[in-house]
Amino acid sequence: VDEPQKSLPKNARSISKKTEKPNILFILTDQQHMDTIRAGGCEHVKTPAMDRLLKNGVSFRESHCATPICTPSRGSIFTGRMPTETGVWLNGKKGGEICSSIPNMGQWFQQNSDYDTVYAGKWHVPECHTKDIAGFDVIATGTDHMGNPSDALVIRACDAWLRNRTDTNPFLMVASLIQPHDMCQWLHININKHELRYPEIADDLPELPANFEPGEHEPALLLQMRNQHMQPAWGDWDELQWRYYLWNYYRMVEMVDGEIGRLLESLDDCGLTDDTLIVFSSDHGEGLAHHRMVRKDFFYNEAVKVPLIFCNPNLIQSDVRDSSHLVSSIDLMPTFCDFAGIPSPTLTHARSLRPLLEGKDEPWRSYLASHSTYPAQMTENIEDATMMLRSQRYKYIRYFQTNAEMLFDMQEDPGEQKNLATDETYDDIVKDHRRMLKEWEHDLILAPRLENKTRIYDLIDIT
To answer: Are the beta carbons of 330 and 350 closer than 8 angstroms?
Structure first.
């Protein structure tokens, strides 16, 4: 699955070897659309903290989550394994805990390094907030599942820990924030609001995206998801309501950016910035009115792609936008291990991003996959899962419950408006992507709780 890739463009700043074993600060937001950073081109937000990271680091434009929904995505982020390997393949309490034979990031670092491992904020594997996370010293924050009051408490807790630490060990700190996830609650309380709460902002509302309308030949299950499980359809939103939703979402992004900025200030004040690899990402994206979709758990780019930025000009390149390498949230675990100077645990498809961050010209994967829980979340039947295979040019999606397929040419149709799977001209390409998906699934080591269930691998016919 490896193929040669062009190296990242060399930045004028040299890469120093000053920090041999850096601190690692992992900032994780919840439900953040990739294109919500002003320095990345989004004119609807002011995000000075994220701008700082983007301008001083390496960002990946083809960054995908292992699954576009909270609990299984987080299970994959903190283990480097796919959802059917961790056993956490459903959302919420249904997802359960990570398989006991698979170490999470904190456990692995505690067992194999001298790093202090600290966690503050949302966990959600499966408990949203808990004081007990194996492998981590959890900073109690008194938070709940609302980002508006909780994110500030998480950042204050991290700030206090940084300012009061006395040992000299490197640290792995996770600051797990909730915004802009409050959009889920906003959608519930604004279903039928056809008049603006604040008419004075009417002229400032964002325009709808170019791919606001659904594309051609959508499968019935996707139509069902939009029409039966999304608030805009329940409330029969008009264009103004859709634009108001966008405006509110961007404000939530600005809220979490403010908290990130405070955390970066804490690093600066403590003299830790130069010795810390800062990593910023999100567990999944947000529909954001593209294809008339909101929230997550589908495979349009808006839900499955996530921001991913690494920042420390002493260690890696700066002001680099990588739009060629296909990367996954499972790659975080081996990357952190690589920078910490420790081996990775047993992994299947995850790879360290360090060579890419350092601008090395090395072979890289030519495709990756992602799982979705829809509609399996309702039936709890793994045969009802949905999967995506993303190659360099195409995206292939398979709904196993109905065997419906989608294929998009991401080069010619980045807005995913034309489903090519219904065009026999593309039969060979569809078959090739089935084969790649089967290869991906073949290598996975299923969690014990799934051993008696049908393997997705067995559901893929490559003839």
So the answer is: yes
Q: Per-residue pLDDT tens for 11-43? A: 433 334 445 899 999 999 999 999 999 999 999
Q: Which residues contact 344 (CB under 8 A, 6 or more apart)?
A: 80, 333, 334, 337, 338, 350, 352
Task: List the one residue out of 308, 347, 298, 346 whose CA is nearest residue 328.
Answer: 308
Cα distance between residue 332 and residue 79, in whole Å: 9
Q: Which two tokens stand for residue 149?
A: 């009051």
CA 277 to chain centroid: 19
For residue 278 the two structure tokens come to 């800062």
Please give the helix or strand (H or E) that residue 370 lies within, else none.
strand 367-372
Helix (DSSP H) and strand (DSSP E) numbers for the chain: 15, 16
Q: Which residue has the tokens 């405070």?
A: 262
Q: Cβ–Cβ contacts within 10 Å for residue 430, how many?
A: 20
What mean pLDDT is predicted for residues 309-323?
A: 96
Pairing of strands 367-372, 386-391: antiparallel
Which residues lie across from 216 on neighbouring strands?
A: 418
DSSP string, 99-157: PTTS--HHHHHHHHS--EEEEEE---SS-SS-S--TTSEE------S-HHHHHHHHHHH
Dihedral sign for Cα 43, 408, 213, 219, please.
negative
pLDDT digits (tens, 9 = 90+) for 171-189: 999 999 999 999 999 999 9
Q: β-strand 63-64 against 327-328: which pairing, if any?
A: parallel
What token pair was written down for 112? 């194999």
Of 100, 6, 3, 2, nearest to 322 (Cα)? Answer: 6
Give SS3 for 399: strand
| Alpha helix segments (H runs only) across 288-423 | 301-304, 332-340, 354-357, 376-379
Pair of tokens at residue 208: 């709808």
Question: DSSP readout, 143-190?
Answer: --S-HHHHHHHHHHHHHHHHHH------EEEEEE--TTTTHHHHHHHT
pTM over 0.90: yes
CA atoms within 13 A on the CB side of 269: 12
Instruction: Single out the residue of 412, 419, 424 nearest to residue 398, CA to CA.
Output: 419
Q: Which residues lie across from 119 on neighbouring strands? A: 138, 174
Is the preceding omega at residue 126 within 30 degrees of 0, hence cis? Answer: yes
Task: Report how far residue 358's alpha carbon sits from residue 344's, in angstroms, rounded to the nearest whole number.
Answer: 19
CA 187 to chain centroid: 21
Torsion, CA 36, CA 42, CA 46, CA 48, rounded to 10: 80
